[in-house]
Amino acid sequence: KEWTREERYRVLKNKSELNHLYEINTSSVYRQDYHIQPITGLSNDPNGFIYAQGKWHLFYQWCPWGPVHGLKYWYHVTSEDLVHWTNEGIGLAPDTLFDNKGCYSGSAIAIDDEVYFYYTGNHRNEDWERTAYTCVAKLEDDGSLTKKATPLFAPREDYSEHQRDPMVIYNKALKRYFIFIGARSQDERGCALVYTSEKPLEGWSFAGELHVVGYEHFGGMWECPCITNIDGKDILIFSPQFTKLPGRGDCTNHNVYIVGHMDYETLTFTPESHFRYLDYGFDFYAAQTAANASHHPVMIAWMGLPDNHYPSEKDEWEGAMTLPRRISVEGDRLIQTPVKAIENLRTQTLADNGHMSGAMEMDVTFTGGDVAINLFTKPNGYDGLTIEYDAMYRMITVNKAHMDQRFNTEVFEKLDIPLDEDLMNMRIFIDHSSVELFINDGRYTFTAHVYPTIRENRYTHTDNMDLTIYALGKSVDE
Ligand code: FRU
Asked: Which terminal residue of the chain has fewer beta carbons within 10 Å of its beta carbon, N or C?
């Protein structure tokens, strides 16, 4: 379907306008059992992730009308354990002059007993010229959000129109708040702009461009910057665009991190080592760590990429969140593991009989040598999503080109995961339209959408492994 601008930017007046689409979307065979997915239409970035008022709050970028990037809302979901999620309704609607064409991505902060959400008001005028304002809203006791009437600041004129995705953080030593904004300079460099204030709701001024040493020319736009301190180290996460990176096929949208040190006085981030991919898979972008959770850091990302298309568009929806992942640092590497409570989803242990069942977890320990695990094969054992490990080169290769439904074929269908050590173990989380691999206790992850057809219902594997397989129950609202 071709969408006109009017269709994409239609304002939602009444929930009942979505009833018909909701029926179509929720009867899709690709609806997930335990991954957050759009109530209708499209979801992209996770926003405003925070633990507050006794539960986890998460929002996602939401276009109600279908699998298309149009008018964006923040849709609100909550959870007590990061596994069971409840739909709470709209968090932010694009209903002011400053955000008239979308409430774009942003982050949360807790200040004493209050929680604030910083987001981008995507304003466009009649000539469709963009002005991206940095706006703020407050979490009320009843779970609703109230916007501050005016933005905290307007975009800078000496950068391109692409300035968005505020990440807010408090620096105790300097007793100041900082906001990082993802940006594209006039000469098309990707970068982050830094603003600072002594107070969260007023007095903001431009402090300068973040200097990430060695990354002065790295991509053409940095979306969704996120900075977090874990175990005494600063982790800078961002999504560079308009560049190809090693081992990432023809993809020009990436999500990377750098472990290093952030100096808030000089606005300099000094890397300890080279950047790394947050995830080696086909569909992972715009990751955000939870605010206010320094003792148990958690990260979540959009399972998807800008400019990509997915087979669930036939059922008029697309997008999902990854599993929330506990993160820790080991040297210059981020370790990601599914939150412990995910184990409560196990409904039964399954025999290793070669049959896939909708939502399942495979815990695999390897006993050495080359390995192959082929998921979603046809009944004859052929094709499917292949996961192969070459022990000599310590390289895992994941290939989705032999699935019945191929998509984003011009970006990549086959990717490598180079390991620094032998392959020891893998946890595989399968939902109705996704696979997430956690390799060697979370040292490497691989996230992919996959849309098996009815006949792609088996799996095969080589003998050199021990498997425990669980069926998983449902944990997200429809
Ligand atoms: C990243 C992004 C953000 C923007 C949002 C709009 O996927 O483009 O930069 O705020 O999505 O939905």
From this structure: N
Nearest atom in ligand 1 to the alpha carbon of residue 69 is 12
The full set of domain ranges for the chain reads: 5-338, 346-472
Write out pLDDT tens, residues 185-218: 999 999 999 999 999 999 999 999 999 999 999 9
What ligand 1 atom has the least distance to the C-alpha of 61?
12
Quick: pLDDT tens for 253-298: 999 999 999 999 999 999 999 999 999 999 999 999 998 766 679 9
Ligand 1 pocket test target in 61, 221, 222, 300 with most atoms within 8 Å of CB: 61
72 lines ligand 1 (CB under 6 A): yes
Active-site residue list: 45
* Assembly ipTM: 0.98
Ligand 1: residue whose CA is nearest its atom 7: 45
Identity of residue 388: E
Beta bridge partners, 438, equal 427, 445
Query: 304 C-alpha to center of ligand 1: Å?
Result: 12
Q: Is 119 in the pocket of ligand 1 (CB under 6 A)?
A: no
Choose one of 9, 44, 69, 119 to mutate for the ligand 1 pocket test, by most ligand atoms within 8 angstroms of C-beta: 44
The CATH architecture annotation of domain 5-338 reads 5 Propeller (2.115)
- pLDDT (tens digit per residue) in 132-180: 999 999 999 999 999 999 999 999 999 999 999 999 999 999 999 999 9
CA 198/CA 178 separation, integer angstroms: 9
The b/e string for 241-263 (b: 16+ C-beta within 10 A; e otherwise) is bebebeebeebbbbbbbbbbebe
| Mutate which of 118, 164, 191, 226 for ligand 1 pocket (most atoms within 8 A of beta carbon) | 164
Specify whether the CB–CB gap between 299 and 315 falls below 8 A: no
CB 143: neighbour CB atoms within 10 A?
Answer: 14
Token code pair at residue 297: 């850091």
Question: Which residue owns the Cα nearest ligand 1 atom 9?
Answer: 223
How far is Cα 171 from Cα 407, in angstroms, rounded to an integer?
A: 44
In whole angstroms, how far apart are CA 160 and each of 72, 104, 191? 21, 17, 11
The two structure tokens encoding residue 134: 């940095």
